[in-house]
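Internal tracking record. Fields below are filled automatically when a chain is submitted to the structure queue. Please do not edit lines marked as system-generated. If the sequence contains nonstandard residues, flag them in the REMARKS field before resubmitting.
Queue: standard
Priority: normal
Entity type: single polypeptide chain
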Amino acid sequence: MKKLICALLLAGMASAAPGVFAQASAPAKKETTKKPAVKKAAKPAAAAAVAGGALVADEKEEDLGKANIEGSIVTEYMCEFGVKITVYHNEGDDQYIALRWKNSVERLRRIGTTTGANRFENRRYGIVWINIPTKAMLLDSRKGQQLANECRNPEQQKAFAAKG
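SYSTEM-GENERATED OUTPUT FOLLOWS
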């Protein structure tokens, strides 16, 4: 099973466009008398903000707009070590999800895969959500590590318990 998951992850990463893991930055302006200033990207004060009672995540860099989770279908995932992840999606839109992890809500865009896995990514924050029929996982694409593994919604948990 672990070999299958690794193969799915590698296939998904291999099918991603070149530069997926590189952070976009504007070229520095050159000045003749000074060294070019290196401008660091400003981090948002809060990844999630309350606007009119609805939680939203702002993803301006990829022009994703506002991820309004009000009225969305909510799916709770319980992961290893008691980690809880909540996924919000709209019935008519399978291209985007909003994902709540720790104290932030981020909007992720669907990335096509050849394996059939549901892969969503937010390049600005470097997070990847992969959901296969038996489980889901949250990855940090910048650090190359898992943030949460063995995540299952109630339906996946029932299927998992039935096997064991």
